[in-house]
Amino acid sequence: MIVNTSRGVVTPASPPSLYVFNHVILAIRLPEAVPSPDNGSLFVHARLGRLLIFDPTAEFTPYGQTPTCIQGNTVLLVASGSGSWSASGGRAPKPQY
Prior knowledge:
Elements: E1 2-3, E2 23-24, E3 26-29, E4 42-45, E5 49-54, E6 74-79, E7 82-87
Antiparallel strand pairs: 1-2, 1-6, 3-5, 4-5, 6-7
C-alpha cells in the first residue's frame, strides 16, 4: 500500500502519479486461524481476503494498530499487477481545539 502521510492530499479523484505518495505500508494477508484485530487495522479485500495494515517503520505502534497519520487516510493497494483505492483502517483523529 502506498500513502501520503498528510491526510487528504491524495483522493480517488487524484490524477495518477507516484509523486504524490511519500510512504509505503504493508498489507499482510492473515490466515483464517489468526484472529482479526478489532481496532480498525483490518482491511477486507474482495480478491485478497483479510489484510492486516502494518507500518514496519512505526516502532512504537502496537500490533494491530496503525499510526495516526495513516488512520482514515486514502491508500493505493498495489498487488499482482493491479491497484485499487481504499480507505485505510482506523479513524481519522479528531482535531483538538
